[in-house]
Design brief:
It is built from 20 helices and 9 strands. The chain has 455 residues and is of the alpha+beta class. The protein has a domain of 147 residues. Strands 4-5-6-7 form a 4-stranded antiparallel beta sheet. The chain has a 3-stranded antiparallel beta sheet with strand order 1-3-2. Strand 4 and strand 5 form a beta hairpin. The radius of gyration is 28 Å and the shape is elongated. Keywords: ANK repeat. Pfam families: Ank_2 (PF12796), WHD_GPIID (PF22939). This is GPI inositol-deacylase winged helix domain-containing protein. InterPro entries: Ankyrin_rpt, Ankyrin_rpt-contain_sf, GPIID_WHD.
């Protein structure tokens, strides 16, 4: 009722004289749905397409959009080539408020105030606006053209973001170019998210994605420079060399872009190409638990025992994450259950560390060596990594490798290099650790502003 009253006051506030006021009072819509229908229907023909684009992005955006980002949204039409028309960008970003009337409002986003200045964002004026736009009720009124289906809108935003990124064909971007292309960071980071939410992309959007995801395209290189899916927390790296960027199949598998994976495989992409933090496409998809993608890769003869990456092989990656269906799939394809390497030494140790009992049982049923000697278990700490060469044992997570406390050599990075702790039982190691901490070990902890050293 409060929102309905606000909308009525907005309508009455536009009356310029008593005659207009009397006419408005006589025709005020009695319900909130009818009020929104009236507001949408009153948008001019010239602004209607812009309003539709703005409302679509505000309704389904992955994060709040700044006023400058929305000013560029109106200039994107994925049906044309190029999709982005610089001449169509709003000269005055505040025109967004006039185009969409009382359906949108401005606010200040302080979420990242410790790292950046507050942003002026545009949002839907009330949750009921989105509720009406996505409801079935809108399709029966005069404003039916503004009705929104989630799958259609996510596809449109993905296509628009892809089209926006395709303009960056330069071999090298300047670090200050983000000031001129406000939507670049959002498009790079979230086009794949919208594609995932859509599920199966339309043929047209898939074709745009294929154009972007070409190893020979600088637009592809610049996408990864803007946002690296391997390290999504990183800031843009405009100097990242093309040779350091994995092939498109790797990122398509990592991001669970099934349509893209199929198209790239049909184009004879190298299914076993090495590169990326996870070594290859199969390990990346296995770590993330993307069963359909893993199936497609295995059907194209991906090497189930390929070595490399954080986890050494796909089985260890899936075991560490506890993806039972994935582990079964890889074992059925004759994955080496005792393969050594990676962050946790082997699949059994990885699953044991994660406490994934069902996975441990599957590995033991396939004759995993319960006494296998592992590589270093490396654990991230505030100061870097602690490496623990591991011995054998039994009954970890009730079924697998119990780590022997007598026999660890713990190494901890300090500002001066490495300090080794002499071997002993677990209690001795703990006591020595506490004494050394009291003696003044410095742990470095990453913070938004850099490093803080704590004595």
């Amino acid at each position: 009722m409060f929102r309905w009253a606000v909308c009525q006051l907005d309508i009455l506030g536009k009356c310029r004289n008593r005659v207009m006021l009397r006419n408005a009072l006589a025709t005020l819509p009695p319900t909130l749905d009818q009020t929104y229908d009236r507001i949408l229907s009153a948008i001019s023909k010239e602004d209607s397409e812009y309003a539709l684009r703005i409302l679509r992005w505000l309704t389904f955006s992955a994060r709040p959009l700044s006023i400058d980002e929305v000013a560029e949204v109106v200039a994107i039409d994925a049906k044309r080539d190029p999709a982005f028309d610089r001449d169509e960008v709003l000269e005055d970003p505040l025109e967004v408020l006039n185009i969409c009337s009382s359906l949108v409002t401005m606010a200040v986003d302080n979420k990242y105030r410790n790292r950046e200045s507050p942003r002026q964002i545009v949002t839907l004026a009330h949750y009921s606006v989105k509720e009406y736009l996505v409801s079935d009720r809108i399709w029966t009124g005069k404003a039916a053209k503004y009705g929104m289906r989630g799958d259609v809108c996510h596809d449109a935003i993905a296509a628009g973001s892809l089209g926006y990124l395709l303009q960056f064909q330069q071999p090298q971007l300047k670090p200050d170019f983000l000031r001129s292309f406000n939507l670049a960071r959002y498009s790079a980071e979230f086009w794949s998210s919208h594609a995932q939410k859509r599920g199966n992309l339309t043929k047209e959007t898939t074709q745009i994605a294929v154009r972007l995801c070409s190893r020979e395209s600088f637009a592809y290189i610049n996408w990864i420079r803007l946002w690296n899916p391997d390290k999504p927390w990183d800031t843009p790296d405009f100097w990242k060399g093309p040779k350091k960027i994995p092939n498109p199949l790797y990122f398509a598998a990592l991001l669970n872009l099934r349509d893209m994976v199929k198209v790239l495989l049909d184009k004879d992409a190298d299914v076993n190409a090495q590169g990326g933090d996870y070594g290859n496409a199969l390990q990346a998809a296995s770590y993330r638990g993307h069963e359909a993608v893993v199936t497609m890769l295995l059907d194209k003869d991906a090497d189930v025992n390929a070595q490399g990456g954080h986890y050494g092989n796909a089985l260890q990656a899936a075991s560490y994450r506890g993806h039972e269906a994935m582990v079964k799939m890889l074992l059925d394809k004759d994955a080496d259950v005792n393969a050594q390497g990676g962050l946790y030494g082997n699949a059994l140790q990885a699953a044991s560390l994660g406490g994934h009992e069902a996975v441990v049982k599957m590995l033991l049923d396939k004759d995993a060596d319960v006494n296998a000697q592992g590589w270093r278990l490396r654990q991230r700490t505030p100061g870097g990594f602690i490496g623990r060469p591991r011995g054998g044992g039994e009954d970890a997570a009730r079924q697998g490798c119990r780590r022997q406390r007598a026999g660890w050599t713990l190494q901890q990075r300090t500002p001066g290099g490495f300090i080794q702790r002499p071997r002993g039982d677990g209690e001795d190691a703990a006591r020595q650790g506490r004494r050394r901490q009291r003696a003044g070990w410095r742990l470095r902890q990453r913070t938004p502003g850099g490093f803080i050293r704590r004595s």
